[in-house]
Amino acid sequence: MLQRFSFRQLLVIAFLLIAALLGAASLRALFTLEELSLQSRDNAARALDLSRAAQSLSERSVSMERTSRQSVVLDDRVLRERFAEELKEAGDILAVLAREDIPAVRARQWRAHLQTIAGLLTGPSDTALDRERQLAQEFRELEGINAAIAVQVQQAIQQRNKSLEGKLEASRQRLTQQVTWAIVLAVVMALAFGVWFTLPLRRLENAIVGLGENRLGQVIAIQGPADLALVGQRLNWLRLRLVELDADKSRFLRHISHELKTPLASLREGVSLLEDGVAGALSNDQREIAQILKHNTGVLQSQIEDLLRFNTAAFEARQLRRQSVDLLQLMEEQVYAQRLQWRARELTVTVVGEPLVMEIDAEKIGTALANLLSNAIRYSPAKGMIRLELSAMRGFVRIDVHDQGVGVAMADRERIFEPFYRGERQPADVVRGSGIGLSIVHEYIAAHGGSITLMPDQPGAHFRIELPHVSKQ
Prior knowledge:
The chain is α+β, with helices and mostly antiparallel strands. The chain has helices at residues 7-74, 77-99, 104-120, 128-212, 226-275, 284-316, 327-337, 339-344, 362-379, 437-447, and strands spanning 323-326, 348-352, 357-360, 385-393, 396-402, 451-454, 462-468.
């Protein structure tokens, strides 16, 4: 179903999912902090109310003591009514404190003392002084109860503060865990989406590289977003088109070469007949012209054959017949096959390395080695040295071919593997080549997934072949 979406749409969806995850964690943290803030404000307000209530209760007790003692001494009804009002207000305050977890025993003690005090307000006038002293004693005891209630109020406030601190700590830990998990999950999602989005892009890159390296036999199919899958289809169409163009080119080269070879053969035969005097004796100038014609027809025929050979090599490079081959033995066989050439120039050719078996097309790798060795023999000075080295690296095998010849000019290094390109350093005593030998080497090595590089070593030329997929003996 996701393949219906484009890369841009999936990217937006991924960003929205990650943003939603982080946003949900942020909102959760915000709501939790808001809730804790409300609880903190409510707790502070309740603490302030309790402190005020405890203080007000103490103040009411002082006021009631003054009013009650005055009413007893003066036997004043108005003062007794005021005492009754203050008693009612103190009772309301005590009721508020009782609702805030003040121990009930303190409230009962407080009310019991107030009842005793209320009973002492009335009586015979000759007992006024005694009752006034009893009132003072009762209010001193009531003051102690008020102090105890104030202490318990402070303890209740502290308990609420500790409870709130516990909630704050628990919420902080919970929020920390939630935010941490949200960040971890967001990172995991980002990495997962990154890998998932990168896979089709990497396939596209490999497909483009394959087209650039002329690996046209591999079908290009990109699984992923709709627009990338469409690009993959376009690349596969391009691959098929390149296959058709390559086939058309090969047919054209075969046909044009065949069409040229027949009249060229007739031309060479006619020139030979003229040179042999079949049509009559030739003058010196005529014979020289006939020789020039014969030489150029020979050169033209050689170039046509080289063109056919390169076209055949480029076609066969894509049809490998792999088998287990001892690469060191293959190198020694190529050296032995060209022994007459290097002995004629009194060269010393050495092969260095350990036996190494790997899956390759022996014929094509052998041809590549033969071409490199042939070039080294051609350009090496008399009595020079040529060294072939075989070494196994991690994941690939390396072949180095060194010679002591004139080397390759800097201007020629970038084009040395182009078909029919011949460098500027050509020894005078060497027959000028066609310029396809190194091109064929490059085709055969690339077909094996390897590479050939002209190293910057001086003097002489140093070619390095690297082939992957080494197999142990």
